[in-house]
Structure prediction request, 426 residues.
Amino acid sequence: MNAFNVAEYSLSLGSKAKVASALMAKASTASKNAALKRLAQLLREQTAALQVDNAKDIERAVAAGLSAPMVDRLKLTPKVLETCAQGCEQLAAMPDAIGEIIGMQQQPSGIRVGQMRVPIGVFGMIFESRPNVTIEAASLSIKSGNACILRGGSEAIDSNRALARLVRQALADSGLPEDAVQLVDTTDREVVGQLIAMPQFVDVIIPRGGKGLIERISRDAKVPVIKHLDGNCHTYVDDACDLDMAVTVTDNAKTQKYSPCNASEGLLVARSVAAAFLPRIGAVFAAKGVEMRCDADSKAILSSVAGAKLVDATEQDWYEEYLAPVISIKVVAGVDEAIAHINHYSSHHTDAILTTNHVHAQRFLREVDSASVMVNASTRFADGFEFGLGAEIGISTDKFHARGPVGIAGLTSLKYVVLGQGEVRT
Prediction:
């Protein structure tokens, strides 16, 4: 594509999305739910066909030398597709938030003032690797009455095209505009530059991918951006804790899957339980080949663990999102130092405390400045599906209306509505 055609193509995407968004904003709850249920049905019926298209992407990725975690993110296994289908059904079963009026109050003048939840309009989603994001984004867009323009990574182009066809079929079968969900059907990166600079068509941009992508979008966009840059999540083992639970949860938070942004990258352990806890979790990590980047205190305790891969932690390790079988480990004095460390080094994504001390748990919830804060649970739960949102469009570490997993509410806006009976201002 030459530059002129890219501009023309991008404007076409934008104008079609704008028209579709007006139709989606007034679509009935029944038709939106019908589209979601139809999409779930199509995903199950077409699982085998989808895997054929997915295999093309995986073959190219392996040939291009992509790392194992990156190839893993590309896979549309039957389990992944079933989770997508369940997400659609979960969304269909949820109440329709659009048109909901909240906070209606009578004013001294006689007017009643409240707020109505409405769709944002058109959002652009730019994402890498995981093709299942196509379904998550599309299904949330449908439920929230928006239109969306999706630009997946070039490494998943065949998978994304196949999934987008099913979405458009589900929309058409339910009497909704096919253009409510459009896939950017080219790998030309210039389309992204166009998409993020069309405020006349696009109301918000949501980048989901590597730090370089998100930094570029945030720097160059002429429309608002919902984003998170890093997933440097922490698990803190408190001085009052159930050690068996702490070992189980910490293991899950790190090793259940290495590639997601909600996997724990840092482990903090209170000094009074370090000697009892660290050898146990160290043995688990050693058995799974997890490299431990340790401060001096944790290294001294872990040095007795057979087969442990121990490395001296640098200052950079406390900031690092590894997305790999590597974890930083630090012994801290207690909850005060743990909170201070997390607020200084974390990416404000997800952080957890494992404790039996109610006061410490409440302090951690109040004082840790992250989008999701947990007590006695794995950081791996920081996910729209697990939070009961049906699906998520991404995780936001921003502090405006959308923070944490972005579901339906994050794709809507509130406008003021005023009900009167002929009142005039004096």
In short: The mean pLDDT is 94. DSSP finds 14 helices and 16 strands in the chain.
